[in-house]
Design a protein that fits this description.
single chain, 624 residues, alpha/beta, Rossmann fold, Alpha-Beta Plaits, 3 domains, 6-stranded parallel sheet, elongated
């Protein structure tokens, strides 16, 4: 027991030191998991041989693999598979030239359809590469290597796309969707393949029974979490019912999968998908990720490195020759299919996408580990596959970063319907703040030559009328924020409901009648009234004049969203570029956090910031 605890202490201590070392030596380009495998090489069979893969550290490594597969399933955003109404009803009315920018050359098709086409090509080329390896007598199971070659690492691709600010663009969304499809399909195919390798004639029936039971468990869990009894006892404190339920679900599906002869990693992965479908709170997801990535998963990756025997690989010339060959085949299998994106995106970005898609890590390492345990591949072949994964994650994301510049943060688009004494001045203020503004007016006189001198400074678009179809053809609904601010409140309400039916979310409606205001608020619209606003402003000036003046000052109070993964889990006191900016509040999901120096930032946080325009802009450029 003493030796087991000593080994565990060493592994946990190294897991603690690895991210610190990467930060200290400015090696953020190296994925943490790659560094953990490298550390395992140093203390394992390829280095000082300080740890043997047995006892507690081995069992915790197995749990780390299970939790890694669970979190991989949890990362899948199933809502991305649902086509948005705006992509069909609104974008279809826009001219083709509207979609030309620094990344695109034409309007891309439905992201799911385009991603499916690219993934099918990746799978076909991967099968050809696997057959080639079989012909060269490197492998005997081409189907297993087809799955492994076609698998793309979601954990590597997502941070790179976030760092480049590409997830808001159709190009980044397409690459993300290809990665998600790869992760989901190859994971399921891996579980099916390993189950069929058991040699049991009933394996197909048992596999079908397993998927049926998973569906039943999902339906039961969906009803269970909505029950009144659970809502009463699911508060915080020591109960932590949500965390307990999820851990029980993971272990239940793992045990069920092994009982039915299905590989346990498929059960863990589907447990993550179920939890993702149930839409857990951000706080709960953060707890699970902290437990997994903070304890169990680093143990798994370090133990992967411990088990690698590099000297043995080097002595076998055939394995040495396989490593560059496998790197090349993986690159070809991802690069050639992604060239299809060149029909819709500029060739530079289409070809660079193939570089990023060549990143492969967690699932392939897990597949190689499981295949070795089942005797499907040799230990040397397992080591070569893991070494290829490490090289790919060091090489291809760096090449992608050099090829693709960081995208400029997209300007927020706002459509103001109706030109009057309220919308016209607001448009000027928003233009100064960097918004992309368009005002739509049915007043034909505004377009006259005599009026251009008066209205030329406003971003006006004159339309024949403010009817919904007219505005749709004019592109008014292709926006991030839409404001129905005409003097006709009934027309505003009608247009707002049409915008909501088209899939727009950020809708602001002007209304003055109390009954109409109440009706619109009950439909979850954001309503503003000039009479009500004036009343509240006067009341605020009387009661809280300093607070009103703070809000009214230009550029002194702004909201910043944290998108840059580099600053996730970074304490506020460690930010080197605050200047005179002061973070007043942090909005995290439905929670409001009063910040202090030790408060850690998380991606998707919204920061309420006060300070000079220069300091706030510097903070925006780094965090967003």
């Amino acid at each position: 027991m003493h030796n087991d605890l000593t080994s565990l202490l060493l592994v946990v201590a190294l897991a603690f030191l690895v991210p610190i070392a990467l930060q200290y030596f400015n090696l953020r380009v190296i994925p943490v998991v790659v560094a953990e495998i490298f550390v395992g090489l140093i203390i394992g069979n390829s280095g000082f041989n300080l740890i043997q893969p047995e006892g507690w550290v081995s069992q915790l490594s197995t749990l780390g693999l299970i939790f890694l597969m669970f979190l991989s399933g949890l990362e899948l955003d199933v809502s991305l598979f649902k086509p948005k109404k705006t992509s069909q009803a609104i974008l279809a009315h826009l001219p083709k030239d509207h979609f030309k920018d620094e990344l695109s050359t034409r309007k891309p098709p439905n992201p799911l359809m385009l991603s499916s086409m690219v993934f099918l090509l990746i799978a076909a080329v991967s099968y050809g590469c696997a057959v080639l390896l079989q012909q060269l007598h490197y492998i005997t199971e081409p189907y297993l290597f087809t799955i492994m070659i076609a698998s793309i690492s979601l954990g590597v691709v997502v941070p790179v796309l976030k760092e480049k600010k590409l997830l808001d663009h159709a190009y980044g969304q397409t690459l993300l969707m290809i990665t998600i499809l790869s992760d989901l399909i190859t994971m399921i195919l891996l579980g099916v393949y390993i189950s069929l390798q058991s040699g049991n004639t009933n394996s197909l029936w048992l596999l079908g029974l397993f998927f049926a039971l998973v569906f039943v468990i999902y339906r039961f869990a969906a009803r269970f979490i909505r029950s009144k009894f659970i809502s009463k006892i699911s508060g915080g404190g020591t109960a932590q019912l949500g965390t307990r339920a999820i851990l029980a679900l993971v272990l239940m599906l793992v045990v069920l999968s092994e009982t039915l002869g299905v590989e346990s990693i498929l059960g863990a992965f589907l447990a993550g998908v179920i939890v993702s479908l149930l839409r857990p709170s951000r706080e709960l997801v953060h707890q699970l990720e902290s437990f997994g990535y903070g304890f169990l998963i680093p143990i798994f990756f370090i133990m992967v490195g411990v088990g690698l025997d590099i000297p043995a690989l080097i002595t076998n010339w055939k394995i040495v020759a396989l490593i560059p060959l496998l790197i090349g085949l993986i690159f070809v299998a991802r690069y050639v299919p992604t060239l299809l994106l060149g029909f819709w995106f500029r060739f530079k970005y289409a070809s660079s996408g193939g570089l990023l898609m060549a990143s492969t890590l967690s699932l392939v390492i897990a597949a190689a580990s499981v295949a070795y345990d089942l005797g499907i591949i040799s230990g040397e072949l397992q080591g070569a596959v893991i070494l290829v994964c490490v090289i790919n994650c060091l090489l291809f994301p760096v090449l992608f970063n050099k090829q693709v510049p960081r995208a400029q943060a997209a300007r927020v688009r706002a459509s103001l319907i109706g030109a009057n004494h309220v919308t016209l001045p607001v448009s000027q203020d928003l233009l100064q703040d960097g918004f992309d503004i368009a005002i739509y007016s049915a007043d034909a006189s505004i377009g006259d030559e005599q009026s251009k001198q008066d209205y030329g400074r406003f971003p006006l678009t004159v339309v024949s009328d403010l009817d919904g179809d007219t505005l749709l053809r004019a592109g008014a609904f292709h926006t991030d924020v839409i404001v129905f601010g005409s003097m006709d409140e009934l027309q505003n309400a009608k247009l707002a409901r049409q915008a909501k039916s088209l899939g727009l979310e950020n809708i602001i409606v002007r209304a003055e009648s109390p009954d109409l205001i109440q009706s619109l608020q009950s439909e979850n619209f954001n309503v503003f009234s000039t009479l009500f606003a004036s009343r509240m402003l006067l009341k605020g000036l009387i009661q809280y004049p300093s607070a009103v003046m703070l809000i009214a000052q230009d550029d002194s109070l702004q909201e910043i969203k944290v998108h840059n993964p580099k600053y996730s889990h970074v304490q506020l006191k460690e930010l080197p570029f605050l200047g005179d900016a002061l973070i007043l509040r942090i909005y995290r999901g439905d929670s409001i956090i009063i910040p202090h120096g030790a408060t850690q930032l998380l991606t998707q946080d919204r920061l309420l910031v006060s300070g000079s325009a220069e300091s706030i802009q510097a903070l925006k450029e780094e965090l967003e």
